[in-house]
Amino acid sequence: MSEINKLKIFNDPIYGFIIIPNSLIYDLIQHPYFQRLRRISQMGLSYLVYPGANHTRFHHALGCLHIMQKAVETLRFKEVSISKEEENALYIAILLHDIGHGPFSHAMEKSIVEDVQHEAISLLFMNQLNVEFGGKLSLAIQVFEGDYHRKFMLQLISSQLDMDRMDYLKRDSFYSGVAEGNVNSERLIQMMNVVDDVLVIEEKGIYSVEKFLMSRRLMYWQVYLHKTSLVAELILTKILKRAKELIQKGIFLPCSDSLIFFMQNKITFETFDSENLNLFSQLDDFDIISALKSWQKQDDFILSTLSKMIINRDLLKIKVSNEKVPTAEFQALKEYFALENNISLAETDYFIFKGKIKNQGYSKEAEPIRILKKDQAIEDVVEASDQLNLRSLSKLVTKYYMCFPKQLV
């Protein structure tokens, strides 16, 4: 029997050829847990706004792997010592950092498995894979959890200037067609260095960092927090909440076995065992879309109406403002809608609701982006930059929204 060639090459529209560095990475990519990412949308329901935004978490994970290879290559060139084991740990950790995402990425985080973040589920997947691969992921897990003594390795995976952000901004910009997000990841990586095991950016790369932070802020307002994407994700969350209510009352709703399990059972991090993890690994976007197509024909007014909204892209109206929504106006809409549709005031919460969104381009409380000056001093990018916009980027901006049926306009 012939051996499989595991040194494959992917053709990526962003970076060109992506090379799989070794057979362990190949085997992880081939695993059903990872292949599932081909069926998980990278940008949730953003394709309802940007029709090209149909790329997947699989694309993103491979892109992160590619730029991590470039980062390791650059740091070694600058005489930063990275062993073969550490190199492999970085590749595995960045490849699997998003493996815990549920259907439609962030849209489902609070709906299917309550109070368990995707990072925690990623760690559960990594631990399970570590068992299957005979402990070969142990160092990657240590790095991913922040327990490894070389701090810069975690910064490459999770920080305000990590491989994850560098790839998703460039990739999401490309697929959505929003040019403002197109960051120069190649330049940023070339400017990276390590001082005392801490990641720094050389001073001549400061303008690329400024562009990166500005691009991220613009992508959040223009794409990730676009009001139509936002209302679609909120409706999807309401649909699953209603489906859970009906199923737990004993009403039959057609959907996949894995989806119905999470509808019937409240799974916490403590009860998330290997059996539940396997069921979760069978969930993807197709389970949700298939369920919505069936649920739009259900007798329940709330479930069928909301499901039709997503399937037909006929969504609730959303108003976004810098001011809080007046309580009197909000209450009046609810009372009118309840009367018109013969539903209770509590049930109007599925159609009329309010909340807030926040955006912060750069957090001074989180791990800073450090600039290595020519005199070898190290400064926070906000202090090192002569760009006044960076100071304003570190301020938290809050906006308020209200969603309601279009006929109430």
Structure write-up:
The protein has 409 residues and is of the alpha+beta class. The chain has 18 helices and nine strands. It has a four-stranded mixed beta sheet. Strands 5-9-6 form a three-stranded antiparallel beta sheet, covered by helices on one side. Strand 7 and strand 8 form a beta hairpin. Helix 11 (227-248) runs antiparallel to helix 15 (301-311). The chain is globular, with a radius of gyration of 23 Å. The N and C termini lie far apart (68 Å). The mean pLDDT is 91.
Features:
4-stranded mixed sheet; 409 residues; 9 strands; globular; alpha+beta
Layout of helices and strands:
Layout (H helix, E strand, L loop, with lengths): L8 E4 L3 E4 L3 H8 L1 H4 L21 H21 L6 H12 L22 H15 L5 H7 L6 H7 L5 H14 L8 H6 L1 E4 L2 E5 L3 H19 L2 H22 L8 H8 L9 H7 L4 H11 L5 H11 L5 E5 L5 H15 L11 E7 L10 E3 L5 E3 H4 L3 H6 L3 E8 L5
SS content category: alpha+beta
Mean pLDDT: 91
Low-pLDDT regions: none
Q: What is the 3D form?
A: globular
Q: How much helical structure, as a percent, in the residues?
A: 40-55%
What is the succession of H and E elements? EEHHHHHHHHHEEHHHHHHEHEEEHHE
Numbering strands along the chain, what is their spatial order in the largest sheet?
3-4-7-8
C-alpha Rg (nearest Å): 23 Å
Work out the number of β strands.
9
Q: How much beta, percentage-wise?
A: 5-15%
Euclidean distance between termini CA atoms: 68 Å
What's the tally of helices? 18
Biggest sheet record:
4 strands, mixed
